[in-house]
Amino acid sequence: xxxxxxxxxIELKWQQEWEKSAVFQCERDPNRxxxxxxxxxxxxxxxxxxxxxxxxxxxxxxxxxxxxxxENVLHxxxxxxxxxxxxxxxxxxxxHPREWTHQKIVxxxxxxxxxxxxxxxxxxxxxxxxxxxxFTQWLFLQLYRxxxxxxxxxxxxxxxxxxxxxxxxxxxxxxxxxxxxxVTRKKLSQxxxxxxxYAEDLLRDMELLGDWPERVLTMQKNWIGRSExxxxxxxxxxxxxxxxxxxxxxxxxYGVTFFLLAPEHPLxxxxxxxxxxxxxxxxxxEKIARKSDIERLAxxxxxxxxxxxxxxxxxxxxxxxxxxxxxxxxxxYGTGAVMAVPxxxxxxxxxxxxxxxxxxxxxxxxxxSSGEECYAGAGTMIxxxxxxxxxxxxxxxxxxxxxxxxxTGKRAVTYRLRDWLISRQRYWGAPIPIVYCEKxxxxxxxxxxxxxxxxxxxxxxxxxxxxxxxxxxFVSTSCPRCGGPAKRETDxxxxxxCSSWYFLRFCSPWLDNRPFAPEDVAYWMPVDQYIGGVxxxxxxxxxxRFFTKALYDFGLVSFREPFINLFSQGMVTKNGAxxxxxxxxxxxxxEIIARFGADTVRVFILFAGPPELDMExxxxxxxxxxxxxxxxxxxxxxxxxxxxxxxxxxxxxxxxALERTVHQTIFRVxxxxxxxxxxxxxxxxIMELLNQLGESLRLIxxxxxxxxxxxxxxxxSQILVxxxxxxxxxxxxxxxxxxxxxxxxxxxxxxxxxxxxxQEEETVVVIQINGKVRSKINIxxxxxxxxxxxxxxxxxxxxxxMNNQKLKKSIxxxxxxxxxxxx
Length: 823
Description:
By secondary structure, this protein is of the alpha+beta class. The protein has 26 helices and 34 strands.
């Protein structure tokens, strides 16, 4: 570390100056082009880590760039403060979740401010505050009144450790995504949002999105899981009752050899009532209740089932086949019933092999796929009655028409997506604004009575039922409709409800009578650039899109998508693994900032590699970033201290070369920030400019400095500092002043390059003979054609290829190509 670059004093100085000047505060201005930059706000459940730093520094570069481009930039920050992470941490440390959460918010704010992130802190939102969750509850009521929020009894994912329900999206490999405990199944009455009503919209409107990572779109498409096929009505002969299945492969209906029901299907009870199978079904259900949906659906898991001793009729073939229950058939997926085709479905095949059930091929694969015991692709229909010999795709259509003509089925589209389960049996969340009255039933809390406040004095340890159910003062209330005694809903909302609309609140954070002002949202939204981890591809991003579409249908917003562009950054790893306390490989941002300064941390994070990829923490890399900034400091100070001497000579070519490099660097840095998010290559270009500036200084110092050279060096230094500013804002503000500028660099105009001054003095001309490349030569740019031809014809390679043949004609593309046509 050099004594000259006092990063601590410099960084605190400019942070105070930015705050005093309100330089990052913004207001709606219809006369200015807006740019809304937003990073996914954090859970304040633990200490700030380098993953946070990477996310927010990336966003800061983008925000600072567009501020200097003259756009009206909204760059806010808040905290996703409710939910399991904060509550579990508070329980672990023996303090109230509110106290723990606010401690962590303060710590996070300190780090973000110390990094110099360009937030408009006036707009900060904290989701656990009543002035925020009041409107989370208000939005619940809008969904409820429009039929998109409802309560029903059903099997749910239950985490025995967290003692709460989990949405399907929160179960990873059969375990709770928060604590890793294996998830079980339970029947509970729960609140849901009807996201399935928007399944097709969520798919179709992907066309409205701008630059989103393809893998995020693919993950959402797969989760929504659109399937085209047909409903087919099988018939129970004894009961004359239809049981409907959905299939994407109606062309395989002649290969159905058994019929499957979900163990939880209500029809199962009717089929086994009073039979020897009744007690066995009960035991089977208890056994599979310990499995998660993920485990039951996995192709690699061992399939389990049992025969119910009943038969059902295939409506197309008239064949009677046995009915079984199987663990891999789920009541909530499709119709809870499956026509099993073991010759052409892998799970059915495994099941049939295990239990000795018939396997009948009805699709002949193409020659390259023959020999597979279970073939799931397209082919030619065989053993399929009048449909035999048809290509399977054609057969699908003809069988669907047959089903519709015989009124035993119809064409259909289904989705894998299930409604969003939002109930949580935990304390730290937004209360659901519903009361239950013996006389009036389920009653929504009137909007004027919001918020339904979360009580402070609660035993919040998880024991199964919601902790709020143990607080009589909270539970007992009066019915808003009849005034009689009533009880409040004691479940709280999934924290993802809070984060599904926070980007709207940033537009009007001061309003106390509505969640946002229409005129503010109309100006600022949608978000131009959203930044966050790919782990949120399904949960947060899908839910936020759903909320926006619902609000659009309610007439509350004028757009259908919340985020135009999405950038998903990679993780920060150490020793090849994601940083975590349990692995002992965490790095404290505070400690690194104290040792090297915020600008060094920023430059290291941004220079370490493409930001969309995971980056490995490197102490040597941090030291390298620090050395680079010290070189910038020393070089600029040297330029400032130069004394010009009129009598000195100067090298015009050297000045032009430096000028050319400056314009090339402006072009590259501008492109890499705006178009590609290649911050590492942008910094690399700045380093190259610094090298050339240093070389120019060395040459000039040997002979003395001409005023023109001093002028060029100062200008080049100003551009270097200006381009480095979004990456290292503190040191560049200080150097900007040293270079004679009075204004704040953070709001100074972004430098512009001149294309004609980027051109190299020389260019490469390709030489062809009869259209084939035979040589290349370097020529001065703009050289007249006759001089070019003289150089071409004197080239030894060309003379060898011509071999004394006569030149018929030549074609010249200036500064690019010469084609010699020989006789």
